[in-house]
């Protein structure tokens, strides 16, 4: 497929009378001409929904708005649109109005783990910084569906300043993840300013950008943007391909520019029923990503956000997919399958079980073929008593500031923490002990 092919020219013509290749490949033209109504959608694709269905689609848009870039829309296979992965990710389904029993508006408690507006501080050493309230394309499976189209805007410098101030005042933060909305909806100038401010903070070691523009608006990845980004290394970028069909000529070119600028690229897919819940498809996607220098990073279980019931698969589907990847293909084309814990517990990896059994010094393991093997653990291993006095340790990692405290399960494994069990605060049995005391 070439960039601005005949079909795309036709899509463009139905939107505007005369559209040149340079209009089409101008990201601002794409954003300005995003399709937002069912009528326009029908017109551009030359399809007609039955009147009854159309009413429900419009009703759905009343709750969850639509925006699709003409580019992304041009990838839809009109002859089989109902099964088309691009259609399913961009066009509303009446199923979105169904609220499942366990659905939540903010399942990841991002708003609660937010010390200042725009920052989610969940993990000890890194923060999510929401720097844009808008996206080029509204993914139907968005985990932040509660916010889509709410305040379609780029926060002012003053608003962003509060987030920056929090990062400046929080020395534990060594990794800042720009998210949104889509951070690449910011102008080059604004982004340059923001990255400069973040880079000026001594304790911030890396910056990451999470963006779907290489997939839905590849023309955003201009030479100017890329050379600006390259000034702010070490900078990592994660994108969001869900289906091999999304790796078009335009997308590949965008990716190539980013990779050539030395920006390490990762991909975060979401497992979606009817879109990509197939091991062969995920494998094809991941191998294609690798070929284009993108490392598959996460495969997400679909969150418990409202309006996503029809997209969810059982977790077993994801484990089955990983089962057919690990060992079968290059290790670096296997993403980590994660469930983002409802309630804000963060990402929890899930995978097939490879440890079959365990004795005092033997571990029984199985491989992807079903071969069962034993690994002999060392007969004598002198466990080093660790009191976290790193200055006296002979492992040659002399850290000045080695006083981090242990968190969670790590405490149960350590010598220097007295903790032997972790008990929920509301445990009734412990409550009785307190009452008796
Ligand atoms: C996903 C996420 C991160 C980054 O997690 P990594 O596992 O380091 O990629 C950070 N903060 C929040 C709130 C997140 O959801």
TrEMBL record:
Enzyme class: isomerase
GO molecular function annotation: 4 iron, 4 sulfur cluster binding; L-lysine 2,3-aminomutase activity; metal ion binding
Keyword Iron-sulfur among record annotations: yes
Keywords, ordered alphabetically: 4Fe-4S, Iron, Iron-sulfur, Isomerase, Metal-binding, Pyridoxal phosphate, S-adenosyl-L-methionine
Domain Radical SAM core span(s) in chain numbering: 121-333
Swiss-Prot/TrEMBL catalytic activity: L-lysine = (3S)-3,6-diaminohexanoate
Known cofactor(s): pyridoxal 5'-phosphate; [4Fe-4S] cluster
PTM annotation (N6-(pyridoxal phosphate)lysine): residues: 347
Gene source species: Pseudodesulfovibrio aespoeensis (strain ATCC 700646 / DSM 10631 / Aspo-2)
Family: Belongs to the radical SAM superfamily. KamA family.
Classification via InterPro entries: Aldolase_TIM (IPR013785), LAM_C_dom (IPR025895), Lys_aminomutase/Glu_NH3_mut (IPR003739), Lysine_aminomutase (IPR022459), rSAM (IPR007197), rSAM_sf (IPR058240)
Binding site for [4Fe-4S] cluster: 135, 139, 142
NCBIfam families per record: KamA family radical SAM protein (TIGR00238), lys_2_3_AblA (TIGR03820)
Protein name: L-lysine 2,3-aminomutase
EC number: 5.4.3.2
């Amino acid at each position: 497929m070439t960039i601005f092919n005949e079909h795309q020219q036709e899509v463009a013509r139905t939107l505007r009378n005369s559209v040149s290749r340079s209009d089409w490949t101008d990201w601002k033209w794409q954003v300005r001409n995003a399709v937002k109504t069912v009528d326009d959608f029908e017109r551009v694709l030359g399809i007609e929904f039955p009147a009854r269905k159309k009413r429900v689609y419009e009703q759905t848009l009343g709750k969850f708005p639509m925006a699709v870039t003409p580019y992304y829309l041009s990838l839809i296979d009109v002859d089989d649109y109902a099964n088309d992965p691009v259609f399913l990710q961009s066009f509303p389904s009446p199923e979105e109005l169904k609220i499942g029993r366990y659905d939540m508006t903010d399942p990841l408690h991002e708003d609660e783990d937010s010390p200042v507006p725009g920052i989610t501080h969940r993990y000890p050493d890194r923060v999510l910084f929401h720097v844009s309230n808008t996206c080029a394309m509204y993914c139907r499976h968005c985990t932040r569906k509660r916010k889509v189209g709410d305040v379609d805007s780029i926060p002012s410098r003053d608003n962003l300043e509060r987030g920056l101030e929090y990062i400046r005042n929080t020395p534990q933060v060594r990794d800042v993840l720009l998210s949104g909305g889509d951070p690449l909806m910011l102008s080059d100038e604004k982004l340059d300013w923001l990255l400069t401010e973040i880079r000026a903070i001594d304790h911030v070691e890396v910056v990451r950008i999470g963006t779907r523009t290489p997939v839905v608006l590849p023309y955003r990845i201009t030479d100017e943007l890329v050379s600006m980004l390259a000034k702010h290394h070490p900078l990592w970028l994660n994108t969001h391909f869900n289906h091999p069909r999304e790796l078009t000529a335009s997308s590949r070119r965008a990716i190539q520019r980013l990779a050539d600028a030395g920006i390490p690229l990762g991909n975060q897919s979401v497992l979606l029923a009817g879109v990509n819940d197939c091991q062969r498809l995920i494998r094809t996607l991941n191998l294609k990503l690798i070929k284009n220098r993108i490392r598959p990073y996460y495969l997400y279980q679909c969150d418990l956000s409202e309006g996503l019931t029809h997209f969810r698969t059982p977790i077993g589907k994801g484990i089955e997919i990983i089962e057919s990847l690990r060992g079968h293909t290059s290790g670096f084309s296997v993403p980590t399958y994660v469930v983002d814990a409802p309630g804000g517990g963060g990402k929890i990896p899930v995978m097939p079980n490879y440890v079959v059994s365990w004795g005092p010094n033997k571990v029984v393991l199985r491989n992807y073929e079903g071969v069962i093997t034993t690994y002999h653990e060392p007969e004598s291993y002198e466990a080093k008593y660790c009191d976290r006095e790193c200055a006296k340790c002979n492992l040659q990692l002399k850290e000045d500031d080695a006083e981090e405290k242990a968190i969670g399960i790590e405490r149960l494994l350590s010598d220097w923490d007295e903790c032997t069990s972790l008990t929920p605060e509301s445990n009734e049995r412990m409550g009785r002990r307190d009452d008796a005391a």
